[in-house]
Design a protein that fits this description.
By secondary structure, the chain is mainly alpha-helical. It contains 4 helices and 2 strands; from the N terminus they run E-E-H-H-H-H. Bound molecules: zinc ion (ZN).
Length: 160
């Protein structure tokens, strides 16, 4: 696998994002984690993916690059299993750790990929949602007349 800088073709349009761009919007392609999120949260989502979910990210890319089939690449399948085990995510294994890569058919691998994708979506789902309340965005003061009856914006010094 060649190194990518996150901007290679086929990748998510968000700078530094390690995922594939699979959802189109305004002429660009985004990953399922960045798609539809306000761009102000792009970096936070990318950080979550790169710093905490990379074992899953790499696994989804591996599966995708093998076209959801490991019949001719059982070692690639084992590498994914081992990576998830090393990251203490046995719950994300396709089957048992020693499950044969030759046994499961394509639909099962596809379902596995969807499960990994969904895990990434859930890991980034609350970025830009619930956590917005806890952020330090200042509340803008109310501008404009608050008392319609006797308020004039130029009342002081603009009598002429
Ligand atoms: Zn992305």
């Amino acid at each position: 696998m060649s190194e990518t800088n996150g901007q290679a073709s086929g990748m998510c349009a968000v700078f530094g994002c390690p995922l594939r761009g699979t959802l189109g919007s305004d002429g660009a392609w985004y990953c399922f984690c960045h798609y539809g999120k306000p761009s102000v949260f792009n970096d936070a989502i990318t950080r979550e993916l790169r710093e905490k979910q990379m074992h899953i990210v790499l696994s989804t890319i591996d599966i995708w690059q093998h076209f959801s089939s490991f019949y001719d690449a059982p070692e690639a399948y084992r590498a994914i299993q081992n990576r998830l085990i090393a990251a203490d995510r046995r719950d994300l294994l396709m089957g048992n750790a020693d499950c044969s890569a030759h046994r499961p058919g394509k639909p099962i691998v596809r379902m596995w990929l969807q499960r990994l994708d969904r895990t990434l979506i859930e890991a980034t789902a609350d970025i830009g949602e619930q956590k917005r309340i806890a952020s330090t965005v200042p509340t803008a003061p109310i501008i404009g007349p608050t008392h319609a009856s006797n308020f004039h914006p130029y009342a002081d010094g603009a009598a002429a």
